[in-house]
Amino acid sequence: MDSLKSLMDRKDYDLVIKLTEGSQDMNYLFYRISAFLASGRGEEALKTIKDNRRILEGDLGLLMKIHIEILCLLNNFDEAYKELKYYENLPYVSQQVEEVLRDLPKLIREEEKKSVSSHELNNDALHERLQSDDQNLVLPALDMVRDRDVNMFLADIQRIMVKFPKQSIRSFALLLLVQKHIDKEMDFNHIGKPIKINPSKLEPPFIGSEFNDFVRELQNELRNPAVSQDAIQILSSYIIYTYPEKLEINYAVLIEALREISEEYLQITNDKSLSERCLEKGVSEEDVKELIQRIKESLNDF
Prior knowledge:
Blueprint: H1 4-9, H2 13-19, H3 26-38, H4 42-51, H5 53-56, H6 60-73, H7 77-88, H8 95-118, H9 123-130, H10 135-145, H11 154-163, H12 167-179, E1 186-190, E2 193-197, H13 209-222, H14 225-242, H15 251-265, H16 274-281, H17 285-300
Antiparallel strand pairs: 1-2
Helix pairs in contact: 2-3, 3-4, 4-6, 6-7, 6-8, 7-8, 8-10, 9-10, 10-12, 11-12, 12-14, 13-14, 14-15, 15-16, 15-17
C-alpha cells in the first residue's frame, strides 16, 4: 500500500480519508485532517479534531496551528478565540509550542481583519467590540479603527486607555492615537499611574537610529540568532508595555538581562554565569536582576 504521504502528493484525498477512518494513530489523524481540508471539507476536518483532541495533543504545536487555521478558514473567529484560551491554559510543554502559541493571536486577528474587509463591520458593532474587556476582541477592533475616522471612536479608546485591565492593550490604544496624530490632552493609565498625555506630541517607538543601533549591538553580543531574535521580541514587548516611558537603561545591563531571559525561555545553558558576565562587563548584577524582574512582570501582563 502506498504511504499516506504518497497518496496526498498524488492528491488521492478520498483514499486517504477511507484508509484513516476509525484510526487512533496520531499521524494518521493528521493526514485525515489534511485530506479533508484539501477536499474542501473543513467542517469534517474540524470534527476530526474535536473527536480526537487528546490523541492529537501528542503534537500540540501542530494541532494548535491547524485547529486555529481551520476555525479561521470557516470564519468562526469567536470559537478560534475560545480555543486559543484553552491552549493558553494548558501546562507548559516546550519553547517551540510557546512560540506557536505566541503567534496565534496575530494569525486570528489578521484573518478576521481580512474577513471583515469583505463583510464590512458596521460602526455600531465596532463600538461594541471596543467596549469589551476581552483583549481578543478589543485588539482586532483597534486595528479596524485604523481604516476609519478615529474621532468617531475616541470615547471608546479613552476608556480602554484608562480602564482596560491589561497594560499592553492600553498601550496599543495609545499607539493608535499617536499614529493618527490626535492633538488632544487625554488620560492614560500608565502601569497603574494616571497621567495626562497628548498623542500628537509623543514620539512613536522603534524609530530613529538609537533603537536600530541597539538592535545591531544586541545581535553582535548574543551571536546565537535564536537568542537574539527572541531577545528583540522580548525587548519590543517591554517597550510597548512601558510606552510612552523612555528606555533609559545602560545598554550592557539591558543586553545581559535580555540574554538571561531569552536563554531561560529557550532552555539554553550559558557557559558563563550571570555573575561572571556582569563582572566581565563591569555592570551591577543587582541592576541586571532588577531589570530581569521588571521585564518578566511586563511579559506576564502582556
